[in-house]
Structure formats: C-alpha cells, structure tokens
Amino acid sequence: MTTTLPTAQILSDELEKEYELRRHVTWRRFRRHKLALAGAVVFGIMLLVAILANFIAPWDPNYIDQAHWTGYPLAPGVAGHILGTDENGRDLLSRLIFGARISLTVAIFAVTMEIVLGTILGAIAGFYGKVVDFTIMRITDVVLSIPLLPLLLVLTAIVAQTSNKAALNFASIVLIIGFVSWPPVARIVRAVFLSLREREYAEAARAIGNRDARIIFRHLLPNAMAPIIVQATLEVANVIILESTLSFLGFGIQPPTASWGNMLANAQANMAIAPWAAVFPGLCILVTVLAINYLGDGLRDALDPNMR
Amino acid sequence: MLTYVIRRTLLNVPLLILISMVIFIILSNAPGGPLAPYLQNPHITQADIERLKHNLGLDQPLPIQYLHWLGKVLTGDLGYSTSNSESVMHAILDRLPATLELMGSAFIFSLAIGVTFGILSALRPYSWLDYVVTTFAFFGQSMPVFWFALMLQLAFAVYGIPLPDGYKIQLPSASMCSTDACGLGDRIEHLILPTVVLSLLFIATWSRFMRSSMLEVVSTDYMRTARAKGLARATVVLKHGLKNALIPLVTVVALGLPSLVAGAVVTETIFAWPGMGRLFINALTQFDFALLMGYLMLVSFLVVLFNLIADIAYAWLDPRVKYS
Questions:
Q1: What proportions of chain A, in percent to the nearest 5, are helix, strand and coil?
Q2: Nearest residue on chain B to A266, judged by CA atoms?
Q3: Among candidates B239, B256, B252, which has minimal Cα distance to B303?
Q4: What is the pLDDT of residues A176-202, one digit of tens each?
Q5: Beta bridge partners of residue A85, listed in sequence order
Q6: Averaged over A95-100, what is the pLDDT?
Q7: Is A102 exposed, middle or buried (0-12, 13-18, 19+ CB in 10 A)?
Q8: Which has the closest alpha carbon to A252: A124, A152, A147, A127?
Q9: I need a labelling partner for A117 at 20 to 30 A (CA). Which of A148, A275, B161, B259 fits?
Q10: What are the tens digits of pLDDT across the range B268-297?
Q11: Which of B210, B284, B308, B309 to mutate to test the interface with A (most CBs of A within 10 A)?
C-alpha cells in the first residue's frame, strides 16, 4: 500500500502535466487562428445581446408606435427608431434584439438535443456493433435520405394541422429540429467509437469488470469529444439558418414573436418602400452564422488537425 | 463490376421501402390524414367523412392502408390531390421540367465555378487569390438562401442596377412567357437570378472541397515523378492532378442533392418559379396528403438514386476500390 500510493501519485501528476501541455497546445493553435477568435468574439456579443435583450432594446419589440406610424414603415432615424420600423410600426432594432434571443436559443436547445441523441445512438452503435449497429445505421440512412427541409416543413405543418399555427412555438420547433437532425452526429460518433473500442484502455476497463455504460461514457466518450464539439458548433450555424428558413416560409416561429426569419416574411412585399426591413434581419443571420462557422473551423484546426 | 452494380442497387430497395413507411406513418399522424382538407369544409358533414373514409379504405388498419398505397404506387398511381383535384402523378410531372431546369442549371453552374475556384486557389495556396476564394466560400456557406434572393431582388428589381450594355436582369415572375413561342433566350434571361441564388451554397462547398482535394493530390509522389519526367507544370496539374482530385468530389456532389432540393423549394417560392418546390409549399398549406406523400417519395428516391450513382461512379473511377 505504502509503496503503490506514491507511484500512483507520480503517475497522475505526470498525466496532469501531459494534459496541461496538450490543453496549452490546443489553445495556442486556436489563438493563431485570428478569424476564429474574431468569430468567437462576435458570437459572444450576440449571446450577450440575446441575454440582455430586456435592458438594451430601446422599445418593446411588439409595441406599435401609433404616434408616428402612418401605415407606412418609418425610415431609420425617424422618431427615435434607430433602424426604422417594420410595416406594422414596430421598432426594427428592438425586434432584432429580441429576435436574437429566439433564434439563438432555438439553435442552442435544438443542437443540444441532437448532440445528446446522436451521441448516445452513435456510441451504442459503434460500441456494440453487429445487429445494434446495423439497426441504428439503417434508421440513420432513412432519415438522411429524406431531404431535411421538406421533412421539417411537413412535421411543422402536421403540428399546425393538429392544433393551430400558434402551436408552432419555441418548444415544438426545438423538438422537431432536434428530433430529425441527429443522424450526422450519430455517424461521426459511431465512426470514432468503432476505433476507440479496440484500444487497450477500453479492453483494460472491460477486464477490471466495468459495466458497459461506464466504459462508454467514462472511458470512451471523453476521447470522442473533439469531433463532437466541432460538429456541435457548426450545427448551431446550420440550425440558425434552418429555423430562419422555416420561419420565413411561415412554418417556424409565429408572429408576433420576433425571429430573424419571420421578420423577413413580409419584407419581400414591402421591399420597394422599406428596404431596411429586408436588409437588417438577414444581415444579423449572416454575421452570426459566419462568426460561428469561423469559430467552428478554428476549433477543428485546434482540437483535431487531422480531421476534415 | 456488374455484380457490384446489381448488389448495390438491390440493397437500396429495402431502404426505399423503409423510407416510404416512415413518410406514410408521419403523414398519417396528421388529424384526418388524407381527409384533412375536408375537415374544415362546413358543407361536408361527419357522415360524409365516414363514408369517404370507408370508400377510400381509411377505416382499415394502418399497415393495410400502407400496402394498399404501395400496390398503387408500383402501378404508377400516386393518388389524387385534394387541393387541385388532379392526379398527383400528373401534377408532379407537370412541374418537374421547371424544377429540373432550375436544379440542372444551378448544378452545372456551381460545378463549373466551384471546380475552377478550387483549382485556382489550390495552385497558389495562401496567395491573395486563395484568400479571396476561401473568404467567398465562408460567406457562401453562411448565407441564408432566401435572404440572398431578397437582396438580389432589391438590387436588380427595386434599384434596377443595370449591367454592362444597359442590360437588365429579369425577375422570373416578371413577364416570363409560358408559351414555346418566346424561345430559349427569354427562358434563360429569367433563369439567371434563381440559378445564381441556388448555386451560391454549392459553389462555396465544392470550391472548398476541391481546394483541399487538389492540395492533397499536388503533394503526392506521382505528381513529383511527372514533374521530374520534364512535363510542363500545367500538363501535370490538369492531366494528372485534376483527374485524381475530381474522384472524391463525386461523392460530395451526390451528397449535395438533399440541399439542392431544399434550396430549390426556397428559391422557387421566392421567385415564383413554377416548379415542384412551389407545388410542395402549396400542398403544405392545404395539407394535401397524396401530393405531400408523392413529393417526399420522389425527392427521397432521387437522393437514394444519386447516392447509388456516386457509389458506382466512385468504384468505376477509382480502381483501388474493391467490389466487395
């Protein structure tokens, strides 16, 4: 006992040093990637805006400025509306700020759901192989063969049909997107697990009698985190675009709740008289998605340079 | 090779059956199922609904209904659309050419531009040209399709930005003739904007992929050997390099089909392009069961078909792939 303890202590210290070094290298590689850093900053600012929406929005997002609104959208700068108003006389900037809250939370919740689902299914498929693997992968094939946007549109239309369009709220959109977009995650995690389960430490963990669940989640999963993190980041960008497309087509977040997508739904008809209402919401989507894509690219380079 | 093709093809049959079952179950879960549009109609009584249900076999268990549907599909009967009372097959075939025209031109355009961009940027990595192409690719991948369409409309339709020679870009919804008399010129003129909109994402992804694929090939031994034999740089890159760099692109291009379908839905809606995507959105608002079923099956079938073609093409192009 007395002799094994120090050895273990030394070993774990060594390991700790090794981890520290690796973390350092990862951070250095990420820092070198200037655009990824910029992306992280922009995304951080967007998150702050979404969190602090109540404090920074100059107007109530659903307040109709009847004192100035004459039926035409107000131009930027008129009557204290920095970016003007939409066709209903509501302050555009405030709607953009609250829209950030909706668009970002939908994306983050939906991605969390798809990552959890995809990771569990992918891990089980890769770890057990054989029939389990075959079954899960065929489900993945089926979902991936139906084009995502039409599938999402049909699912949201069914929800709208079952009760009414107001049922297409935050929760149902998150559930629908999360429920159908996990297969790419499952495929990635499965591929990693297929090779991880052959490693010596997996065998060692099994040899000392660990339960499967413990081997999967405590021993193997931490080593599969790099691709999962990268995929999660890039998926946030994808889901922001998906949600805004659904909302733009009228099958996503329903008005009066502002989302960047549904703010553009009426913009096309009013484009000649209110181009600002068409420009700014899309610009928000573009900037945020671009920032996340650069961030994801930087994370990929930093965490796993061999991955592509 | 032939056995490989046959086996690959047969493997996709159960997949297609599974897909159709999943879509059938999802759509049947809507209240009213195929009769959904009638539920809102005040002139149709509950008794009518029951009678229709019985006549159409909707009172049978779901598996029976599915088999019934499958049997009809195999004879080419996709059922009747409840929103515009024509056969679904006819409705789809009617709109298919317009969609194929749009998707086809976007496909060719993106492939040509994407591959060219990829090669140019791989030839001089980290040059200013490479930076421009890479940055463009990031923007293209981050651009919401519908907003890009709106911005182009704003620029060319609202502000009327003229092109060289005073030529103005035509919106598809504006004065496109539907008769054959107008000829190809008119058609192409109206096709420009939707094609550019639909292509952006693919130019972006394919040029990025082409760049990395090309960079990988350029650093291989056989490229150095070819150069050492005294071949000109251009010959080496275009004859030896390009051939090998294009092989992995086949898979990526085939996997892009679902996005192309999705992009077409959005593009057609915004530009009022008379294709399947718009038909689908209309079917969606009225919950036209047979039409939705037919559309989803068709696009899924196309996706499966393209994956199959990619698999076979890959095996054919790359002799290192074993037919197992």
A1: 75, 0, 25
A2: B150
A3: B256
A4: 999 999 999 999 999 999 888 888 888
A5: A91
A6: 92
A7: buried
A8: A152
A9: B259
A10: 988 888 889 889 998 888 888 889 999 999
A11: B284
